[in-house]
Amino acid sequence: MARAAVSGRLGARLRWQAATLVERREETASAQTLVFDVPGWAGHLAGQHVDVRLTAEDGYSTQRSYSLASAQDADRLELTVQRVPDGEVSPYLIEGLAVGDRIEIRGPVGGWFVWRPEQREPVLLVAGGSGLVPLMAMIRAREAEGSRAPFRLLYSLREPADRLYAPDLERGSAGLDVTYVYTRSAPQGATRPPGRLAPADLVQWGWPPDFEPTVYVCGPTGFVEAAAVQLVAQGHDPGRIRTERFGPSGG
Amino acid sequence: MPIISRGFHGRRPEAGHKLPPGQYETRDFPVLSAGPTPRVPREDWEFSVVTENGERRQWSWAELMALPRQTPTVDLHCVTKWSKFGTSWEGVSLDTLLADVESSAHYALVHSYGGYTTNIPLADLLDGQAWIAFRYGGEDLPPEHGGPARLLVPHLYLWKSAKWVRGIELREHDEQGFWESAGYHDYGDPWREQRYQGD
User: Fold this and answer.
1) How confident is the model over A45-74, as pLDDT tens digits?
2) H or E stretch including B24?
3) Is the pLDDT assigned to residue A8 strictly greater than 70?
4) Is B26 touching A (CB cutoff 8 A)?
5) Cβ of A247 and B10 within 8 Å?
6) Of A29, A127, B40, B64, whose CB is crowded by the most CB atoms within 10 A?
7) Cβ-defined contact of B197 to A249 (cutoff 8 Å)
8) CA of A42 to nearest chain B CA: how many angstroms apart?
9) Other CB atoms within 10 A of residue B39 CB
10) For the purposes of burial, counting CB atoms within 10 Å of the CB of B43, is it exposed (0-12), middle (13-18) or buried (19 or more)?
């Protein structure tokens, strides 16, 4: 199995850094993208995440991991937060944090579920719901680097109102094919009836196994399990399928 | 000095439960794996221990089932921040499996079906600290949680409890496994918050 290191930071202690909220963008009724300024941010790879730490006035603190949604961009980084009902952290990030407020982050973390600009092979991105976040970072990194690696995205979501990054995906990018797989209700004029991601979707909109694509699958556990099983059954080498399962995060 | 978030109150674990730093309690059992879930039929399953001298011992599924079992109830701590209290397992203690193995090794490299590896000091696999577990919550361990059998080393972050375990290589020198060579900590003690290299 391929090995990968955290970019240039192996062995270096990951320090907590102050991140200042500079902008927030509403993605859907329950998800926001938060833009942070982190002076001296050493950069990151598409697919990596950061740890976020919140500390209450009495000293209690807790942490969560959030995937980076943005490509490398100087001192700026973007996280997309899906509001978890009754969550401990996400409601605060969405409602309690004001522009100008600071939180602590450390990272970037992760060297396996990443796309690197030097990769030339076709890439298949399979997203379930907010599992799109690290995959969008890959799409953005590809564009920022001027990469011509052929990309295909299969984005499974309940209904059109749940679409993250709708303007970006609508604008599109040369060499990127985007297919929406609606599970509950599809927009007017959609040719595919609503339903869960099926083997036929992966055959029709993915890459054939003999193209030897690298496949990144991210989403809820059940979604990732089902997609990965189907991909292996269709002949994709398990060693080229990288998964990230977003467990119920407790918020 | 940490940055205080005014208006953030947070949740405290229920009385009696102590959480390692940075962790939160979940009642779910999230799944985290780097790739597709391997499916290993029990008739093909085997578990081996290879010493630093190349001596090899092997157990089939039936041979594992014939060994004395234990039923540990333990807390789990995943490096992705969730902790789960009071999980019930059934498995064979590594003390049982390693009882007659001749070795002076200090380290173990654990191997899984699917190619995953993780490194653990051998001392952390002994003295009632580790099991080859095959039942969870009174049921056979499902594949997504590492079935047919996984290593269970609950005093370390859960990535050390290798799913789909197939063998343990005893070594004189430490060799990093899959996540360790990608920047995660070589030991991984949740109480000392050893998440990443250098922690």
Assistant:
1) 999 999 999 999 999 999 999 999 999 887
2) strand B24-25
3) no
4) yes
5) no
6) A127
7) no
8) 16
9) 13
10) exposed
Which chain A residues are Cβ-neighbours of B166 within 8 angstroms? none
Q: Which of B11, B30, B183 is closest, CB to CB, to A111?
A: B183
Interval A128-165: pLDDT, tens: 999 999 999 999 999 999 999 999 999 999 999 999 99
Which residues does chain B have with pLDDT short of 70? none
**Cα–Cα distance measured from residue B128 to residue B115, given in angstroms and rounded to the nearest whole number:** 27
A86 to chain B: closest CA residue: B11
- Does residue B51 come out as left (phi exceeding 0), alpha (psi in the -120 to 50 range) or beta? beta
Nearest to A12 among B3, B24, B198 (CB): B198
* Alpha-carbon span B46 to B41, nearest angstrom: 10
Q: Which chain B residue lies closest to A91 (C-alpha atoms)?
A: B8
The vertex-B143 CA angle with B138 and B144, nearest 5°, equals 100
Instruction: Say whether B82 and A250 touch across the interface (CB within 8 A).
Output: yes
Question: Which strand (E) or helix (H) includes residue A28?
Answer: strand A17-28
Contact B75, B87 (CB under 8 A): yes
Nearest one of A80, A67, A99, A74 to A34, comparing CA atoms = A80
pLDDT tens for B69-124 read 999 999 999 999 999 999 999 999 999 999 999 999 999 999 999 999 999 999 99
**What token pair was written down for A78?**
């973007």
What's the DSSP call for residue A96? I
Q: Which of A60, A228, A247 sits opposite B28 (nearest CB)?
A: A247
Asked whether B159 and B79 are in contact (CB, 8 A), the reply is yes
Contact in structure between B188 and B79 (CB atoms under 8 Å): yes
- Is residue B148 within 8 A of residue B39, CB to CB? The reply is no
